Amino acid sequence: MSLFSEIEKTIERGFRKWTERMFGPAEADDLISLHRAILEEVETHVETVARGQRVFPYARLAVTLVAADPGRRAVLESAFGERLNSDIVEALTAAGCELPKGFTVEVTTAETGDRTFQIEYSTKPTETSAAVAGPAAEPAVPARLVVAKGRAVEPEYTLEKVRTNLGRMAELMDTDQRVTRRNDVVFEEGGDEANGTVSRRHAHIKREGPDYRICDDGSEFGTRVFRDGRSIDVPSGNRRGEKLRPGDEIYLGRACLRFETEPRP
Fold it and tell me: Do 142 and 128 share a structural domain?
């Protein structure tokens, strides 16, 4: 089973919906096959180090999409130019991979080539991507989650990673006993009545510069944000999710986490 198998379904749903709207169902099927092939090749470069920790050693990917027809190249550039970077980052981080600082994916097209796509891997980021990933793009103080309802392994969690997985159980495995997901915010199995409404792959929080967004990963009982007296549903499988604000209460089913950004006194 692919490391990307679960997250790829979520990514693919979003990609299919967007490409069908932009280019039509027939074109979308072909683009999705190409999108999947690229992710599968990227996955082969994931390395496992001590204690099963996964790393992706390359800071820059240069993806070249090949098509003889100028119209086809225009479609490929439109479909992959802005989305492929975020999709690859999401797939790698969801698989528990640590990414080098300044990681970026650059997409270009070419008229000729041996394959429909080619990927060049580099351990050095571009100067632009390194600058974007520098301290100025990150919050001065990492935000944190405080457990308000339910029983988690820790009473609060600092959001220090680009992606923080939320769910029940610390590690999830496939039928071959390979770890497919590690949850950073862990609600104990059977630890509380509210815990039973937290899915094993419930949601994740991603950091985008100084901002944080909550995304639902197809949970059974849903994810919602309670803010200023109103409840905001986080759509299942939506890659953008909901931007978090200080004081938001995040409900995973009936379990609740409070999002805080102010440093501890």
Answer: no
